[in-house]
Specification:
Largest sheet: 2 strands, antiparallel
Radius of gyration: 21 Å
Helix content: 55-70%
Strand content: 5-15%
Structural class: mainly alpha
Length: 56
């Protein structure tokens, strides 16, 4: 099985490899599944608590 044939890699005219169309599509799908706000909520709560303790 060739990574070029399945679309994970592509080759330019100089023969160098780069991300193929399938790699780019999988990357975009992965990015769509991320939720930076949700991922940061726990850390934001910790920062808020630390800030409140520091003000005492």
């Amino acid at each position: 099985m060739s990574l070029v044939k399945v679309g994970l890699l592509a080759r330019d005219e100089a023969g160098l490899f780069h991300a193929g169309p399938l790699s780019r599509e999988l990357g975009l799908i992965a990015l769509q599944r991320l939720s930076p706000i949700r991922d940061a909520e726990a850390e934001a709560e910790i920062v808020a608590l630390a800030w409140q303790l520091a003000r005492r």
